[in-house]
Amino acid sequence: MNSRFRFLGLVALLLLIAWTGTISVSAKRAAKYVGSEDCAVCHEDTHPEIIKAHAKTLHSQAMFDVEKNPKSIVATFTPDAPIKKSDIKYVLGSGKVYQNYLDKNFKVLPAKWLVKEKKWVKQQPVDGLTQCVGCHVTNFDPAIKKWTELGVGCEACHGPGAVHADSQDPKDIINPKNLNQKRLNMVCGQCHAVGTDPSGKYAYSPTFVPGDDLSKHFKLTDAGPGAANSQYNTFLESKHEAGGQKCTSCHEPHGVNAKGPKQLRSSVNDLCLACHTMKLGDTDAVKDLKSHAPNAAPDATCASCHMEGNSHAFKKASSN
């Protein structure tokens, strides 16, 4: 009899959850997120270069609350501006390339600011909660509209840090460099990819934790040529991925001594020629760029031909 009541009670609970939707979509783990400021309490002493460098990256500046950081808005507002400054509650982006803006209801406002061009362009007014915010904050729960911190903080890549903060044992936190190639790349792919969560509602995964198999939390979709945030989609098509390369082979995740906002470990050409001066499989060795691409523009890099549209498939150029 008791077993029957327990079974009926479980069924009733599941029905209640399905009806109310009150169980958080981002019920990731029992472990607690603490925020990057707590991480810095110790790591400012043990890894000061990482703390200082990360604070200057696009990741850490991915989203701002205008009330707390009014200077985060870099756009110019004239009387004919397509949106009102007073409507902005949140800023997406540091303002080095472009910025999008959200209102108090997390709706993306219908124009974005191009920084270098100093002009407005149209922006599709999508729902920021389902399409954007999850990759601009750390540990976002869209069901209750809460996050641990604005920006891509330590735990976005290392996972929840409360246990590690208490024990100070390296085994109690995910260190991406200790993950295998595919799982490490998935840490980056959780946001640098085009697709949806399994429900199809979110353009990011509310449930992925670093170290997980991303394919169980996120379904890739056809990004199309030049699609934004499609680095992971195209990288999976590449010989680099098949050959065991990691995102961190070229990118410095914390930004320490990185080259430019894309956090490259070295210049584009130096990164490529570090490997491609030797024959790799059916890819011929490159003696130098002048002989390899004699018709290329003087300021061209390897990426100019092999990363068209920011594709990370690294395909052969159509012509030199």
Main attributes of the structure:
globular, alpha+beta, 320 residues
How would you concisely characterize the structure shown here?
This protein is an alpha+beta fold and 320 residues long. It has 13 helices and nine strands.
Which helices and strands occur, and which strands form pairs?
Blueprint: H1 2-20, H2 36-46, H3 48-54, E1 63-65, E2 90-92, E3 98-102, E4 111-114, E5 119-122, H4 128-131, E6 137-138, E7 149-150, H5 154-158, H6 162-167, H7 181-189, E8 195-196, E9 219-220, H8 231-235, H9 239-242, H10 247-250, H11 268-276, H12 289-292, H13 302-306
Antiparallel strand pairs: 1-2, 2-3, 3-4, 4-5, 6-7, 8-9
Helix pairs in contact: 2-3
Task: Report on the architecture of this protein.
The radius of gyration is 22 Å and the shape is globular. The chain has 320 residues and is an alpha+beta fold. The chain contains 13 helices and nine strands.
